[in-house]
Amino acid sequence: MLSYILRRTGLALVITVLAVSLLFVIIHMIPGDPVSTMLGPKASPELRAALEERMGLNEPLLIQIGLFFANMLRGDLGIDVFSNRQVTDIVLGQVPYTLTLILTSIGWSAIIGIALGCYSAANRNSFGDRLTGVLSVSMIAVPAFVVSLYSLLFFAVTLKWFPAIGAGEPGDFGDQLWHLVLPSLAIGLSWVGYIARLVRASMLEIMGEGHVRTARAFGLPERWITYRYALRLAILPTVTVIGVGMGFLLSAAVFTEIVFSRPGLGKLVIDSITTRNYPVVMGSVLFSTLIFVASTTLADIINALLDPRLRSAR
Amino acid sequence: MPDTNVLDVKNLSVSYSTPRGDLKALRNVSMAIGQKKIVGIVGESGCGKSTLISAIIRLMANNATVHSGEILFHNSNLLDFKEREMRALRGIDISMVFQDPMQTHNPVLTIGQQMIDIQYRDKLSKSKKRQRAAEMLSLVGIPDAQARLNQYPYEFSGGMRQRIAIAMALMAKPDLLIADEPTTALDATLEVQIIKRLEELQEEIGCSILFISHHLGVIAELCDEVVVMYAGEVVEQGSVRDVFHSPAHPYTAALLKCDPGHIKEKTRNLPTIPGEIPDLVDVPAGCIFQDRCSRKVPQCQVKRPLFEAVNEQHSVACHLNNKNADDSDHKEARG
Ligand SMILES: Nc1ncnc2c1ncn2[C@@H]1O[C@H](COP(=O)(O)OP(=O)(O)OP(=O)(O)O)[C@@H](O)[C@H]1O
Ligand SMILES: [Mg+2]
């Protein structure tokens, strides 16, 4: 198991390096020039040159990437040109908000989705199964920003059950939780449907396999067979999908953070893109990438914990 | 006599619903297993052997339906049992070794865990259960059993998994063991070993065995009686001696001729019975074997032969068995 974790983490590092380099290149190709944004179009050539020098923009691209990595390893992602603060500090200040939002969303939707999927598979073609099916498909079809807007209007503005904006008082856990309800509903809702469908399909497949028949032939209780013998296998594809889905969750979080005026990476990215604040854009996208790579890696490791065959593969 | 039987299957008919229509996989199948007897079932692939045993333990495919018949286990009809009653029986009174050893075990739990789980009804400590599992594994010839309990199914070869399946099935000392081709994944020497072991264990436990195999030599070695199936029907049954030495059905005779054990010269192509199993969705009238029969008589096309005794322990469904073919109308009316 340890060797699997090491191998998988090594792979994750390689992926991170490639992805970050690619990001660096892409951001460089965005039209518009950070120096004129910062100094205004009428800046003197000397000033421009000095700033370009400071930001390392004169160096060849490869050197810039190399420098970026070297600095990154020291935790230095550059200085925000507007506020003069460390980009790392700015981004790290926002990461917890987004992570909390994403994890809460995927947490509640996974629990409900898995339960619904198991129920549907166990009661295949029953009324409940069909109802779950219809509901799931409708949930999948509604985009997160639509849920955000309508839940905001209905539950926050009309009914006033939940707060409409912000992330709650710092330090007040209950208040923060209260502020999480609507945004995580918006992000998680389509995942409930998606996971329910996925779990149902893989449960049905697994329940038809020979080893389940063996377990039944030994008279094991059906509940036991479902949850101990089948679910453990049926959950594997769902874990992978959630791991990869972190990318979608992050982009859903961008919309949701804006609609609910929540602090977070999404809001930071949008704000810094509109102001052409490249170091901050780069920093927040970098952290998103790290979150994504970490979550896919974690998903693979969880799967390997669940399935011994994956551990031993090569 | 019937009350001494462990299992008595009477006129069982099972079909599968398919897009083409009902596939009549078993038609009027009757067979019995006496106490401490080993009964073999032979027949080509697709003749309904697995369907029969899945009906006995009532773990059938979703699209299967039992149309008629009885499955008497110690004289109570399993087809009337509630699912809960059936579950109480499985693994204790009747246990199973399934056909495909690669699919038999849960891939993500250790063999030890699975062998402990199936003892869930016993009020023993976990280490006692583990001990018992290890003993059982040694009995079927798996060396270093204690350590092997910690391994996962994928770490065992097909033959070992099959032996593990046998060990699991015998652990609760069932009254009836049903084994669906339990030796197909084994090589010849191992097969002999396992058959020997199975005989010893049967002797010790005192159970009856329903043993399915393609391999006639194994049936001859192990079984007391044999049931020959063809395309969803029983065509001949009797003591191994009678059926193998003087087969009364042309199908049995043809099977015996094709058995690799009977062939002396080395050949690459094993002989097979020419022709194919008839379509079970649209079952033709008359004898089910007529298309492939080398000894068919005009009657075979119109009339289904009835099961009749050759001698006390041997019966067959074939028109040739009637010494006087004209007499058969009379006999059918009687039957
Ligand atoms: N779930 C199913 N749906 C439709 N047809 C089926 C199903 N299971 C089996 N059959 C058909 O029923 C017939 C009997 O199948 P069965 O598996 O009982 O044969 P078998 O004697 O066990 O063959 P083998 O020696 O290959 O295991 C075959 O024609 C098979 O195609
Ligand atoms: Mg079979």
TrEMBL record, chain A:
The keyword Transit peptide does not apply. One of its GO terms (cellular component) is plasma membrane. This is Peptide ABC transporter permease. It is found in: Cell membrane. It comes from the Bacteria. InterPro entries: BPD_transp_1_N, MetI-like, MetI-like_sf. Pfam families: BPD_transp_1, BPD_transp_1_N. Belongs to the binding-protein-dependent transport system permease family. It comes from Kiloniella spongiae. Keywords: Cell membrane, Membrane, Transmembrane, Transmembrane helix, Transport. Residues 95-303 form the ABC transmembrane type-1 domain. The chain crosses the membrane at residues 12-30, 97-122, 134-157, 177-196, 233-260, 280-306. GO terms for molecular function: dipeptide transmembrane transporter activity. It is a multi-pass membrane protein. PANTHER family: DIPEPTIDE TRANSPORT SYSTEM PERMEASE PROTEIN DPPB-RELATED.
TrEMBL record, chain B:
GO terms for molecular function: ATP binding; ATP hydrolysis activity. Coiled coil: none annotated. One of its GO terms (cellular component) is plasma membrane. GO terms for biological process: peptide transport; transmembrane transport. Residues 9-256 form the ABC transporter domain. Keywords: ATP-binding, Cell membrane, Membrane, Nucleotide-binding, Transport. It comes from the Bacteria. It is a peripheral membrane protein. InterPro entries: AAA+_ATPase (IPR003593), ABC_Ni/Peptide_Import (IPR050388), ABC_transporter-like_ATP-bd (IPR003439), ABC_transporter-like_CS (IPR017871), Oligopep_ABC_C (IPR013563), P-loop_NTPase (IPR027417). Pfam families: ABC_tran (PF00005), oligo_HPY (PF08352). It is found in: Cell inner membrane. Belongs to the ABC transporter superfamily. This is Peptide ABC transporter ATP-binding protein. It comes from Kiloniella spongiae.
